[in-house]
Recover the amino acids of this structure.
């Protein structure tokens, strides 16, 4: 039995023991509240801590689950086991609608939108006659199973915590998968993720819905535990409390959700009794303490309590072993001599600045073309135009004969163009292997449900195997399980090349891959580029290291101030007086 299994067994034993040992009822009730809230906070960890989308509206989704079940069991006489699913359906619909509108927003607009959504739902609950206005709905039936009352104590405790552990397990499975990597990439902005073929909006809406569903289950439990509902536990202030629990526990960790909820709820309970006694007058002083605590947490332990535990935990090797994994199918490479890329009159204006001024060039199959020019010449912008990161002001891009101008970057990645970035874009808190596996996103198909149920393991093995192969190819085989954030600059660039190769591209765009590499590493890189070329890959290379460019390229395009200065073989370029004046003169 490995450590992971032992950990789970220990957790399950604790829950079962607590339910059978003579623990005072008071504590069982407390832990029931903790379990119920943990589910909502778990959703927030996924959405905010891991996905990077801050929501103050989580309590509103708890409210939808609670009110739906309370209303329908009271007024339609439906079984809570049925209303649970109706509540989940309603929640999913609302979350989809709200998400579809708000998740396109960036920066502070999203949290503001969730505030507005939380407030409006709160006032809706409080003002609807059918929902009992601010008095809410009373006498909600408790849960029972085949005529046997689950009640509010030990059986409820077991059920709630079984749900919490199940939700935690599902989320751990989800995060350790193709979909999970895509979710974890959302936080670092959409440019890199979209360039790997990830539909970021879809994943954002996805985690918004999953997070809302967890809240809805929490609301359902609450309604039938409390046996009454009113709007106050579903207001925005409670939404903020959920966020507080996530941050305190560790918003980036599944176990942080449970830790944060446990600590907050138990502490609140103690402080509610202790503080008024100390101060001598009654009042909600614990809120003040929590305010101070939140500021201190953000300052001194921004990753929350669980981060400290996580550091102490033994690092498990991956649960998957991909040595015997199936090799992923390869795309058919263009025939030698086929025009892979044709850029025709590419133009990009930033306000009055013409960054790329009607540039035309082409890349043939199996060629390495250098794109050189002084800083600010427009090379990176040209890359962004070809890969759809930036929209063209005018001009057209053809890839393997197809017009790809104006396509979103994930469509372009799908067709077989991969790239690296001049300013490295990776997920620092993911391992090197996982970062690189992001590049293979389009070569897998398994979704969230398969990941949660672990039906994706064959595909996952193949994806990780591919990632390992590409890392080995660029000489990074020793760093598979290192956190990407710990790599030196040169190694980060090699990581990006491996990631780009994982997409099995027909055309590879490298933006200054040798910057930060040592001499030996540059020689190794040159070998890799030649090897790739030998496999039929075409490469467009932006690079300042002239030795490397002259060694590996077949043709060179020189840019200056956004314009196409000259084009030719490395020898012709080296001999050109215009180039020496414009470029080599300034760089050397
Ligand atoms: P290179 O990669 O050749 O060094 P860039 O393509 O990065 O050059 O930049 C070309 C010009 O376009 C520069 O003058 C740069 O300041 C400008 N530029 C690049 N990106 C933007 C942007 N997003 N907004 C405004 N100006 C930009
Ligand atoms: Mg550049």
């Amino acid at each position: 039995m490995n450590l992971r299994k032992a950990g789970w067994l220990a957790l399950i034993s604790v829950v079962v023991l607590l339910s059978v040992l003579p623990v005072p009822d008071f504590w069982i009730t407390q832990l029931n509240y903790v379990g119920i809230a943990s589910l909502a906070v778990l959703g927030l960890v996924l959405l905010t801590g891991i996905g990077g989308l801050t929501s103050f509206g989580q309590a509103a989704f708890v409210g939808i689950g609670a009110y739906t079940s309370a209303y329908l069991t009271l007024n339609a006489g439906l079984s809570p086991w049925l209303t649970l699913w109706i509540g989940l359906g309603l929640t999913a619909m609302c979350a989809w609608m709200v998400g579809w509108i708000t998740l396109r927003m960036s920066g502070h607009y999203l949290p503001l939108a969730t505030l507005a959504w939380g407030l409006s739902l709160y006032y809706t609950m409080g003002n609807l006659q059918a929902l009992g206005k601010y008095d809410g709905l009373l006498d909600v039936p408790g849960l029972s199973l085949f005529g046997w009352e689950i009640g509010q104590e030990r059986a409820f405790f077991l059920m709630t915590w079984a749900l919490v552990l199940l939700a935690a397990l599902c989320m751990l499975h989800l995060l350790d998968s193709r979909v999970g990597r895509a979710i974890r990439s959302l936080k670092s902005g959409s440019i890199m993720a979209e360039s790997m073929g990830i539909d970021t909006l879809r994943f954002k809406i996805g985690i918004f819905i999953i997070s809302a569903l967890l809240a809805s289950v929490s609301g359902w439990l609450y309604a039938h535990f409390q046996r009454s509902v009113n709007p106050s536990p579903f207001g925005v202030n409670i939404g903020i409390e959920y966020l507080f629990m996530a941050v305190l526990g560790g918003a980036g960790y599944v176990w942080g959700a449970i830790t944060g909820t446990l600590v907050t709820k138990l502490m609140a309970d103690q402080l509610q009794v202790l503080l008024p006694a100390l101060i001598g007058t009654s009042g909600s002083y614990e809120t003040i303490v929590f305010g101070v605590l939140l500021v201190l947490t953000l300052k001194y332990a921004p990753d929350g309590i669980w981060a400290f535990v996580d550091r102490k935990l033994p690092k498990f090797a991956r649960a998957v072993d991909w040595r015997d994994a199936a090799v992923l199918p390869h795309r058919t490479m263009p025939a030698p001599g086929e025009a892979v890329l044709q850029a025709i009159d590419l133009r990009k204006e930033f306000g009055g600045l013409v960054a790329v001024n009607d540039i035309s060039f082409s890349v043939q199959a199996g060629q390495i073309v250098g794109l050189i020019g002084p800083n600010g010449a427009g090379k990176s912008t040209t890359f962004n135009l070809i890969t759809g990161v930036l929209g063209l002001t005018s001009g057209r891009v053809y890839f393997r004969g197809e017009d790809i101008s104006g396509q979103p970057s994930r469509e372009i990645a799908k067709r077989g163009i991969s790239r690296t970035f001049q300013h490295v874009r990776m997920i620092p808190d993911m391992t090197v292997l996982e970062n690189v596996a992001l590049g293979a996103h389009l070569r897998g198909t398994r979704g969230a449900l398969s990941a949660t149920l672990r039906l994706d393991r064959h595909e996952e093995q193949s994806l990780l195997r591919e990632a390992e192969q590409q890392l080995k190819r660029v000489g990074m085989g020793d760093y598979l399980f290192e956190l990407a954030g710990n790599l030196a600059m040169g190694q980060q660039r090699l990581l990006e090349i491996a990631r780009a190769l994982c997409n099995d591209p027909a055309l590879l765009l490298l933006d200054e891959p040798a910057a930060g590499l040592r001499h030996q590493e540059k020689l190794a890189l040159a070998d890799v580029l030649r090897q790739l070329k030998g496999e039929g890959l075409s490469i467009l290379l932006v690079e300042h290291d002239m030795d490397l460019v002259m060694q590996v390229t077949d043709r060179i395009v020189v840019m200056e101030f956004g314009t196409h200065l000259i084009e030719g073989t490395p020898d012709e370029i080296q001999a050109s007086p215009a180039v020496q004046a414009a470029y080599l003169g300034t760089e050397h």
